[in-house]
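Look over this one:
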Amino acid sequence: MTDRKFRPNGLIAAGAVAMALGAPTGVAAADDVAGFYKDNIVTAVLGAGPGGGYDVYARTVMKHLVKHIPGQPAFIMQFMPGAGGQKAAQYFYNVASRDGSKIAKLSNMLPAFQLLRSGVKYNVSKLNYIGRAASMQYVTMVWHTTGVKSLEDAQKAKNPIVFGSSGKSQSNYIVPAVMKNLLGLNVKVIAGYPGTADINKALEQGEVTGRAGAWSSWIAAGARLVNTGKVVAIAQAGTEKATDIKNGYGEPVPLLLDLAKNDEERAILKLLASDAAMGRNFSVPPEVPKARVTALCRAFDATMKDPEFLEEAKKRKLIIEPKPCEWLNAFAQEVVATPKPLVAKAKQILGWK
């Protein structure tokens, strides 16, 4: 499924782009890159359907990214939901053209899934990440009637916090499973809800008393529950701590990673929180010519600083926490290098085979 194509207005001189890349042969390289992308169409491949967070972030980023790519191509959207993002990932890695005409917004779980799931047909070590628009910091919220206002309260709670989940491969299952099986909290998980909206409805109807979800989702789709105090933040799951998220006592919400009792627990928590750090990432397939990958990385960096992009992101209530391609590729490599014994323990914690 594709959407209509988009083309930016205005021109960016190839020489200016070459100066930004800072290489001795930058002008020739930029001319080559610009020549490829001029009058071309870039396809943005999404591992999800239209209308959700993947779509909004990808469409907003791509609209402005193409202005900064030498040659300023048009772009179209291609939605490829299925198998928790695995369908799109396997297509992108094994089938998609390797010339730089395909840019993907794939699942942020790919590095972890490469280790934790069987039958994976991709290797993130060979993907070319071009940048991250935002983290996907997951925040654990509990219903206000539980009386739990902090993680310390949850650790002492006699009644279990019942979390709603859309499936065992989703972060809304992984986070409470970690809280229960690694950190020892009194937690239960009910899986099978179709999506976030259904879990929020279950919260209001009293079917469940907690949900772990991306902070960007809470302040957008769940804003009414947050702003009215119906839900209370008690923990963050990720590798980067947000200091502006407060618990029911007005105190900063702790990072689950900081609760690790030893290096082994910390390594396991980091693996299981890697999806938050990978966040809203964008990539191109393996073997794309190096000059085009570099140009896309620098175009992504420029987009993240573009006033028009930042203004549109603000209007759409999109969190922007960018990381460059160098950081993202290094982090993905670190995740997939997790020792096998720790991966086995992580699977045990999640109840995965």
Remarks:
- The CA atoms of residues 181 and 349 lie 6 Å apart.
- The chain is about 45% helix and 15% strand.
- Residues 10-24 have pLDDT under 50 and may be disordered.
- The first strand starts at residue 41 and ends at 46.
